[in-house]
Design goal:
Layout lengths: L16 H18 L15 H10 L7
């Protein structure tokens, strides 16, 4: 006995780079709405040692900073 698969719709694949980019942007926006942490502005932080960086990373409450 052969199992039948229910097909609801056909997924169209984007053909151009612009379409891929637009779909990625739309996916990013919907993911940002679900994320409880705000998106940080760009910034630069310098550390003398890796230990200082690890200490700073542990102190951050927003995981999007690293």
């Amino acid at each position: 006995m052969e199992k039948k698969v229910k097909v609801v719709g056909k997924r169209s694949l984007p053909e151009t780079h612009e379409e891929f980019f637009r779909r990625g942007q739309r996916l990013r926006r919907s993911a940002d709405k679900l994320n409880p942490f705000p998106r940080p502005r760009g910034f630069v932080v310098k550390f003398k040692t890796h230990d200082e960086y690890e200490r700073w990373k542990r102190e951050q409450s927003n995981p999007r900073l690293w």
